[in-house]
Amino acid sequence: MNPRVKTVKAQSNYCLLLEFTNNEKRIFEVSPYLDKGIFKELNEPEMFYSVKVSDGTVVWQNQADFCPDTLYLESKPIE
Fold this sequence. Notes:
Oligomer: single chain
Number of strands: 6
């Protein structure tokens, strides 16, 4: 099982700064998803910045979320 999200901070470039339960910090790009389904609503900055951690993943006010495994596997480590 991959680590789960411990903290999240929305960045101005539609990226998320994530810290995982293994203390790794990684960047996840949300922009490739912004033209799909419920994620289209995240184009509104107020909605994008509403992100928070819930049960080891991230969720927004509109109930959009990502699988925690996707967040870990598709994110890039911060060096």
